[in-house]
Specification:
Chain B: This is General transcription and DNA repair factor IIH subunit TFB5. The complex is a heterodimer. Chain A is α+β, with helices and mostly antiparallel strands. Chain A contains 23 helices and 17 strands.
Chain lengths: ~525, ~70
């Protein structure tokens, strides 16, 4: 009975922002570029590229020539995303004029600037002219970022009870800053529980968070932080009166565009702290706490973005560990052999395999052996990895440098109740498999994990999924059939329709913002 | 006037659905907002977890799967 509970994503956050915020965001070339890079599906990118240097608006009907009829679904989805991000404008349908589309002015200008260079926007950071300490190189920054991030993950995972006793214990020092801990509490990744040793316990959202890849984790945390900052400002304003309103709003825009700017900086280079606005300077301490930037203690006029920051908007995974690199390579080999469909399995596992990558970095390489009889051995002493395994394994024995246990129906069910999916478990095991397993699998062209075990894990999940649930909105009590048909048709077009009944004139959608806007414009037209 | 009601869409087999409807009727119909069709129910958001727990309890009474294998460690 798992609810496929996604933790907080950037797209959800952006979708809620009003159009004016987007206009201001897109004044920065780095932001426009980052949104283009990170947020758009391939087809949407093609549309943007085609429109970027178009001298006049494009007729919407022209798209039919570009996109094959069977791709209509993808086309509509791409257009809907582009609209919700306020990247394109489409003229409302009218009788006398065909619909046209074009890029919004700010986005177009900034995107052109980003591609061509030029302008004095300082949008891509101001490098520091001061001498740089030679000790601070890429390896140093990677180490620093990994340490910071693992501290945060440790803190979350440490609240997991292992075989009855609380905390994975051992080698856990310090932990993240108090501000970060508060943030995890606010974001409900952990909750206060007096019965655990640390006083906090992990939540379902926390588990999903743990198994995400590092990049998604960073965004989740950053968005929690932005929202907390927004709320704090909102409270301060209420005390002050309405005057501070506009200033606060531009602050949160500035914060978001600073994050996008960080993503465009160069790893291993020093940047000038003095060139930042006050809002951005105030963000630095928090970003240091997350491990996104490094500021030398003796000279605070420089800041260094770490890999966590520079990969924010790329699809490359942050802090890639040896184990995932290895299994990715193995998958490639195997795909080249291309001899049976098991390859797909392995390829998928490896591409998903970046999940919880950083949580496994304690060992540096794969360490898990799974046998066909559901027994599991892990050559690791990393408390983080052991704690993650304990989420869905019944661990029985612990030796120095090794733990062993079994995958059982109950242990998998427990994991699934926490919100982990069977695929997440499988991909975690596959991407952290011991190199012996990977080698043996590659030699025989089989998937890394025994197929019986993978299938059984999936079956255990199915057994639990008597009902699948999704939160959203039921639309009912339509005035006319025509109103029902047009709104449900629109919902289907933009891909939010989950269920409908023409007989009952009801339908169910998982989002309502765009539908509400659609209703409004329709009402105006009437 | 069209209304948008917040809630959770539950998709399940007809057999499970009939159990859910039965549970609902035992609890003064506090769970289900709308009975949509034979595979779908519309349920109050804050009570989904409680409903799941009740279903789990009910199934435990009737269904006991075997573990695939038992051996000693």
């Amino acid at each position: 009975m798992s609810v496929a509970q996604q933790s907080y994503q950037l797209s959800d956050y952006l979708e809620k922002l009003p159009g004016t915020t987007f206009r201001k965001l897109y004044q920065q070339p780095s932001t426009a570029f980052a949104i283009f890079r990170r947020m758009l599906p391939p087809l949407a990118k093609v549309f943007v590229q085609a429109l970027l240097y178009a001298p006049s608006p494009l007729l919407l009907s022209e798209l039919d020539v570009w996109v094959r009829p069977e791709g209509k679904m993808q086309r509509d989805r791409a257009l809907s995303i582009l609209r919700s991000l306020h990247i394109i404008q489409i003229t409302p349908p009218g009788k006398d004029k065909p619909q046209e589309m074009q890029l919004t002015t700010n986005f177009r200008n900034s995107m052109r600037l980003a591609l061509e260079g030029g302008g004095f926007h300082n949008s891509f950071g101001v490098p520091s002219t001061l001498p740089v300490d030679p000790r601070i190189d890429i390896a140093y920054l990677d180490n620093y970022a990994r340490k910071k991030w693992e501290d945060i993950l440790h803190y979350i995972v440490n609240s997991v009870p292992v075989n009855g006793e609380t905390g994975a214990g051992g080698g856990f020092s310090g932990g993240p800053q108090a501000s970060v801990k508060d943030l995890l509490l606010i974001g409900r990744l952990v909750e206060r529980r007096p019965d655990t040793r640390g006083g906090v316990g992990i939540t379902q959202a926390g588990f999903t968070f743990l198994l995400q890849e590092a990049n998604a984790q960073v965004w989740t945390l950053l968005l929690l932080w932005l929202e907390a900052a927004d709320r704090a400002r909102g409270a301060a304003e209420q005390a002050k009166g309405p005057a501070g309103n506009t200033a606060a709003k531009s602050d949160s825009i500035d914060m978001l565009s600073f994050l996008f700017m960080l993503a465009s900086l160069e790893l291993g280079r020093a940047y000038d702290t003095d060139a930042l606005t006050e809002t951005r300077r105030n963000m630095l301490p928090a970003l240091v706490d997350f491990g996104l930037i490094y500021i030398p203690r003796e000279d605070t006029r420089q800041y260094f973005p770490t890999r966590l920051a520079t990969t924010l908007t790329s699809s490359a995974s942050a802090l890639r560990s040896v184990s995932s690199a290895f299994s990715a390579a193995a998958a490639n080999n195997n795909n080249n052999n291309n001899n049976n469909n098991n390859n797909n399995n392995l390829g998928d596992a490896a591409s998903l395999g970046a999940t919880a990558d950083s949580s496994g970095t304690g060992t540096g390489k794969g360490s898990i052996i799974v046998e066909t009889n559901y027994r599991l051995y892990a050559y690791t002493s990393s408390p983080l990895q052991i704690a993650v395994l304990a989420l869905f394994t019944q661990l029985n024995l612990r030796f120095p440098g090794m733990v062993s246990g079994r995958l059982t129906r109950d242990s998998i069910r427990r994991g699934i109740r926490f919100g982990i999916t069977a695929e997440q478990i499988i991909s975690y095991l596959a991407s952290h498999a011991h190199e012996q397993m990977v080698r043996a699998a590659a030699a025989t062209g089989r998937p890394v994990l025994p197929p019986t075990v993978m299938d059984q894990i999936r079956l255990w999940q199915l057994e639990n999924e008597r009902m699948t649930t999704s939160a959203g909105f039921l639309f009912k009590d339509f005035d006319s059939l025509e109103e029902y048909v047009s709104l449900s048709g629109y919902a289907e077009e933009i891909g939010v329709l989950m269920w409908k009944s023409d007989r009952k004139r009801m339908f169910y959608a998982n989002k309502f913002e765009q539908l509400r806007d659609y209703l409004k414009t329709r009402k105006k037209a009437d | 006037m069209v209304k948008a009601v917040r809630g959770v869409l539950v998709e399940c087999e007809p057999a499970i659905k009939s159990i859910l409807v039965h549970i609902d009727s035992l609890h003064q119909h506090e769970f289900i907002i709308e009975d949509l069709d034979e595979n779908h129910l519309f349920v109050k958001e804050q009570l989904v977890q409680a409903l799941k727990d009740k279903l789990e309890e009910r199934l435990k009474e009737t269904y006991r799967p075997e573990d695939p294998l038992e051996d000693s460690d």
